[in-house]
Design a protein that fits this description.
alpha/beta; TIM Barrel; binds magnesium ion; Glucose Oxidase, domain 1; nine-stranded mixed β-sheet; binds phosphoenolpyruvate
Length: 581
């Protein structure tokens, strides 16, 4: 039995069989071999190198004839790389010294090289990284591998990978993959968010461990505690199975409060809404008693697509969500592409600091056609229910005004075309950049609502990449600096009679949700699966309890003190729930 610790990002437990995905999406059937097989394995690799070299030669000839010498030369360069003696030495050494399988040796060495080139920054070097990736693919194919559909698996499979992008995660088939675990990744990256949306137990940021693992080995992924247990002993499996059963029965109890309001004992009402990424999640929203969709991350339609979704395709998805919510509010956020949300369609050049780069509203404003097409689709879907439009990552007043101006133009165009639109559509902005909080008293007159995106607000306040496991300990939502910014935003919204909600993941933890309500928040939006427990907590306390939590947290000066206090006070207020956390 081998136990590893990572970062828990999506609650739940998966007990199944290991399925390893290499860094470029190829399935690696075995990572290690018996020491007695090393000789055969080196021969297998040599044969594959020869075969890959022949294939590259064929490609070179064909391309030279059909496209020209320049393209043919690319395959020559690949062939040279493949036959590089120092690379071959590294591969063979991993097989003989560490008993790596040929595939795993190839993938480990080439990924390391590709990574080194990728980090060099210049465009030429990054292209070199893609060449290395191509050679890896050719060689893995010669070893008998095929690109794995991330949809592979057999209903028992726990996917292990160096990394998974949000779009790869979005394509996982829940019928086949029951959980996943990655070597890298931070607590609040979008991969984590998608995992929660899909309700797939997940642990990320475990560190380099894939080389220690056999495909098909038994594994437990504990998405509550961030633990990964390999080859668990029978007693551990049984303990986990019992916990899973207890969870199922407590979830069943929670369905009883599904249709009851989220109201404190003494009558303070809170609106609990859901965050979704795909129209299909609407079922989970209704099932968990959501009073609306507080955040629809519309960019996921782009992330899963290989060509740009048309206006009609977008319209159909939006309409489906609005209709299914039967008159309940649906807050649609305009595209928040970029940073870690990059799919197969390339809209931006690679950037050195993508979270500080051309992402989100900045990208939409630079690509008016993209933006207008989406706004047209949204406005057309608005007549199907209560659709509200929200702009992400607003940092300056100029951005907000420009976005609103484009929206007005698109509205006028549609009216001229005779499309029926509601008289008034609410328009809001996300507050997720400290600059927006500092200037909120000016923004507030120009919006109908604000929604605090704590995931990014924490990232930009603490200067911590939300998807980086190396600084995960610094990504602290309870840091007093973050709490002050949240309170400042809520106070300004209340003073100006503007609706305020929190749609970052902070609202999904019951104790933090109570504190936010104490600060004055009356609307929370969180992943559907988290809503029942938040409601259970709210229904068990008085508003004064929440206010006391909020007052007390502002007396601390570190996130650690705030954490400790919230946990202990929550345990006093709701001992049964605290035990189940
Ligand atoms: C946020 O930043 O808090 C948010 C809700 O948006 P996203 O997680 O999609 O960046
Ligand atoms: Mg955000």
């Amino acid at each position: 039995m081998l136990e590893l610790q990572g970062i828990a990002v999506s609650p739940g437990v998966a007990i199944g069989k290991v399925l390893i995905l290499d860094r470029e999406g190829y399935r690696i059937t075995r990572s290690q071999i018996d020491s007695s097989d090393c000789q055969n394995e080196t021969q297998r690799l040599r044969a594959a190198i020869a075969e890959a070299s022949t294939r590259l030669d064929e490609h070179r000839q064909r391309s030279t004839e059909t496209i020209g010498e320049q393209v043919g030369a690319i395959f020559s360069a690949h062939q040279q790389l493949l036959l590089d003696p120092s690379l071959q030495r590294d591969w063979l050494q991993l097989i003989t010294d560490r008993c790596y399988s040929a595939e795993f040796a190839v993938s480990s060495v080439l990924s390391r090289y590709a990574q080194a080139f990728r980090q060099m920054g210049s465009e030429t070097m990054r292209e070199r990284a893609s060449d290395i990736r191509d050679v890896e693919r050719t060689l893995l194919e010669a070893l008998g591998g095929a690109p794995m559909q991330v949809t592979g698996g057999d209903g028992q499979s726990v996917l292990l990978s160096h990394d998974l992008t949000p779009s790869e995660t979005a394509k996982l088939d829940r019928e086949k993959i029951i959980g996943f675990c990655t070597e890298v990744g931070g607590p609040s990256g979008h991969t984590a968010i998608v995992a929660r949306g899909l309700e797939l137990p997940a642990v990320v940021g475990v560190g380099m461990f894939l080389h220690r693992i056999e495909s098909d080995a038994e594994i437990i992924v504990d998405g509550f505690r961030g633990r990964v247990i390999l080859q668990p002993d029978p007693a551990t499996v049984e303990r986990y199975q019992q916990r899973m059963q207890a969870r199922v029965s407590s979830a069943r109890k929670l369905t009883k409060i599904r249709d009851l309001p989220a109201v404190t004992q003494d009558g303070t009402q809170v609106r609990l809404m859901a965050n979704i990424e795909f129209p299909i999640e609407v079922a989970a929203c209704l099932d968990r008693g959501a009073e609306g969709v507080g955040l629809y991350r519309t960019e996921f339609l782009y992330l899963g697509a290989t060509s740009e979704p048309t206006e009609e395709e977008q319209y159909q998805s939006y309409r489906q969500v609005v209709q299914a919510m039967r008159g309940k509010p649906v807050v649609m956020r305009t595209l928040d592409l970029g940073a870690d949300k990059v799919g197969a369609i390339s809209l931006i050049e690679p950037e050195n600091n993508p979270f500080l780069g051309l992402r989100s509203i900045r990208l939409s404003l630079r690509q008016p056609k993209l933006f207008r097409t989406q706004l047209r689709a949204m406005l057309r879907a608005a007549s199907a229910g209560d659709l509200r439009i929200m702009f992400p990552m607003i940092t300056t007043l100029h951005e907000l005004r420009t976005a609103r101006m484009v929206l007005r133009q698109v509205t006028d165009d549609l009216r001229e075309e005779g499309v029926e639109l509601p008289d008034k559509i609410q328009v809001g902005m996300m507050v997720e950049v400290p600059a927006a909080v500092l200037m909120l008293d000016h923004f507030i007159d120009e919006v109908d609502f604000i929604s605090i995106g704590t995931n990014d607000l924490i990232q930009y306040t603490m200067a911590v990449d939300r998807g980086n496991e190396h600084v995960a300990d610094l990504y602290a939502g309870h840091d007093p600096a973050v709490l002050r910014l949240i309170k400042q935003s809520v106070d300004i919204a209340i003073q100006n009679n503007v609706d305020v909600s929190v749609c970052g993941e902070m609202g999904s933890t019951p104790s933090t949700a109570l504190m936010l309500v104490g600060i004055g928040v009356r609307s929370l939006s969180a992943p559907p699966a988290s809503l029942p427990r938040v409601k259970q907590a709210l229904r068990a306390v008085n508003i004064e309890d929440c206010q006391q939590l909020a007052e007390r947290v502002f007396q601390f000066t570190t996130a650690r003190e705030v954490d400790a206090y919230l946990q202990s006070r929550f345990a006093e207020l709701l001992p049964e729930m605290a035990l189940g956390v």
